[in-house]
Amino acid sequence: MANVLRHLPELEGMELGYIQGLMKNMDEDQASLFAQVYRARRKDAQMILILTLLGFFGFAGLHRFILGQIGLGILYILTLGLCFIGTIVDLVNYKSLAYEYNIRVAHETMNMLNANYPGDVMNTKI
After folding, report:
1. pTM of the model
2. Quick check: 104 and 19 in contact, CB under 8 A?
């Protein structure tokens, strides 16, 4: 069983628990590979907060582009963050936006590693 905090010490809260469940059947080499890929692709909640705050200064929707939600990003740009209401809502929910994105990235990372190493211990239930 891999130690999640040794591989990904920046995780906290629900994300830590979720990733710990994903990594429970991995050995150290697999956990290290997963951690490298996941760390490179995950988004920090503080970065989402900063990008959301930029929405009040004419750059609405940047956080949606970073989260891969291109359609909403364009909508936010064209409507000034849905008249700032959408930006305020996203400001309140920035942690959940980052968490949902990171969980999606964790699934994609596991699927990618499972495709590259079929029949390995990486085939954990997602």
Report:
1. 0.87
2. no
